[in-house]
Amino acid sequence: MNAQFMAALRQIVEEKNIPYEALLDTVRAALESAYRKRYGAAGQIRIDVNEEQGTFKVFALRRVVEKVENPQTEISLEDAREIRPDALLGDTVEVEITPSDFGRIAAQTAKQVVVQRIREAEREIIYDEFDARRDEVVTCEVQRRDNGNVYVTVGRVEALLPMREQIPTERPYAVHRRLKVYILDVRRTTKSPQVIVSRTHPGLVRRLFELEVPEVYDGIVEIVAVEREPGYRAKIAVRSHDEKVDPVGACVGHRGSRVQAVVDELAGEKIDIVRYDDDIEQYMRNALNPATVTKIETNEEKKEAIVVVPEDQLSLAIGKKGQNVRLASRLTGWKIDIMSEQEYEEHLRQRELARDPSEIKMRVYDLAQELGLTSKEAIDLLNELGIEVSSHASTVNGLQADELRRYLGGEEAMLYRDWHKVRPLTPEEFRAARQRQRLPEQFTAEQAEAILVGKTSKPQSEQEEEPAQNVEAPAEEAAAGEAEQAEEQQPAAPEEPAGEEPSAEQEPEPSAAELEQEEPRPEEQEAS
Questions:
Q1: Which of 231, 253, 368, 433 is an S-S bond match for 169, by CB 3.0 to 4.6 Å?
Q2: Are residues 318 and 336 in the same domain?
């Protein structure tokens, strides 16, 4: 070993960016390994390297004993005092054991160890460097493509851009193209550390805004949340910690210059900048921009919301392929269901029907308005059905309201048919409904016929024994209707000339002379 070897070590330190002390420790370990392999030394040894002269010495650590049994680990007191006069029994002294021919042998034996240790140190430095730079944005250059994956160089390290982390609208990546990427992960491998970078991570948008917007970098404007569908659309929620600074305006920049720089870097991906609000309803309104929101109904427990928009704003609120509402839902952390005003009314109606009708309270006035009656008419009809009410402010439950609906409009008009067994209309009730001319069009012919003729599910013998005075009027009306229907179904007979009897065969028309002979004379007419 000489001064040239030490100079070579310093050159490696500069090129590989390896700490000098770490490399020197590697050289000491390599020389120790070479010495043990060459001379089979046992016990502890120490390598002393003189950096200035480029020389080294090998020392063995031996314990001072009265009687030597193992010369490689022990030394007598007399020999120890020759090296160190103050040595005592039990002390440890260093004995130089540097061989005369160790320089050439050490260089050959230590070569592989030194190279291996240098590579390990280099890998460790690379790993520590990029591990500390996680979640940062770096500029890289595309080197090659392989099976959909793209390999880029970040400084002196080759990084991997997997297919799943690539923006679909900007593939394929041209070789030597420069990109800004997000350091996603660093993994240890048997060779060199593998750096994984991304172009689709939401953190890339956040870091790009930090580069373009000084207020974001300084912390005056905070980016609360970022959600994106890479290559198509992104939404970011921002708020300001300074009342004098508008967070949306700061991110947009003069004539959109700041946000446009980010859009260009992301291959034209549209970015919506949303003002964050602690009020979740207002936050949702902002997140669904540019759609206009009419009403929001929230469920805090399930974190679900129904957002009502005008009919002409429905497609705008949902967005292309559902992008707008999907990003707004992920941005707010709530499940959002978009409905038009008409759909929301139907939703409320269905939800009302799902409730127990006996628990639903309804004023007589509102029920009368629903059925097109006056309050007095509704009160009279309810009392007639056995439901006691006294004024328009009285309340009835859902089942009682259904009784009046059925009385006026039949079973089809009932809202809670599944909640109770419906009693069929009696002939008297049916007759009263006809007199009021409120028999609904939904009534089928079978329903009307069953009520008119008083059909029941009893046996025929019991039906014959029952008196028929209660159904005389409906029976007469049914018989008249059946007669009219039978007449309509019969084919119409051909019309005959006036004054002639119908005959099976058509007689030939008489001539003019025959008609004159048949006509009676005036005298005969007078006589007759």
A1: 231
A2: yes
The dihedral sign for the CA sequence 240, 244, 248, 249: negative
Q: What is the pLDDT of residue 476?
A: 46
Mean pLDDT of the chain: 77
168 and 249 in a single domain? The answer is yes
526 domain-assigned: no
Out of 219, 247, 270, pick the residue that ends a domain. Answer: 270
CATH number at residue 447: 1.10.10.2480
DSSP strand pairing (304-309 vs 335-340): parallel
- Inside any domain, residue 365: yes
Note the residue count of the chain.
528
Instruction: Please give the distance of CA 79 from its chain centroid, rounded to a whole number.
Output: 82
Q: Does residue 43 come out as left (phi exceeding 0), alpha (psi in the -120 to 50 range) or beta?
A: left
Domain limits at 341? 277-351
Tell me the torsion sign for CA atoms 486, 491, 496, 502: negative
Could you please report the per-residue DSSP string of 135-192?
Answer: T-EEEEEEEEEETTEEEEEETTEEEEE-GGGS-GGGPSPPTT-EEEEEEEEEE--SSS
483 in a domain, yes or no?
A: no
Q: Report residues of the chain scoring pLDDT below 50.
A: 422-423, 437-439, 441, 445, 449, 452-483, 485-528
Residue with tokens 């929301």: 344
CA-closest candidate to residue 403, choices 364, 437, 436: 364
Contacts 24+ apart (CB under 8 A), 3-12: 3/53, 3/54, 4/54, 5/54, 5/107, 6/51, 6/54, 12/118
Residue 498 lies in a domain: no
| Other beta carbons within 10 Å of 276 | 21
- What pLDDT, on a 0 to 100 scale, did the predictor assign at position 253? 92
Are residue 10 and residue 123 in the same domain, yes or no? yes
Residue 308's beta-bridge partner residues? 295, 339
Place of tokens 């009027």: 473
**Domain endpoint, select from 239, 270, 301:** 270
Do 248 and 186 lie in one domain? The reply is yes
pTM above 0.70, yes or no: no
For residue 35, CA distances in Å to 63, 109, 129 come to: 20, 9, 35
Return the structure tokens found at 226: 């970022």
pLDDT at residue 200 in the model? 94
Does residue 179 share a domain with residue 282? no
| CATH number for the domain harbouring residue 153 | 3.30.300.20
Whether residue 408 contacts residue 368, with contact meaning beta carbons closer than 8 Å, is answered with no
In the numeric block, which tokens belong to residue 306? 């129904």
Question: Apex CA 101: angle with CA 99 and CA 107, to 5°?
Answer: 105
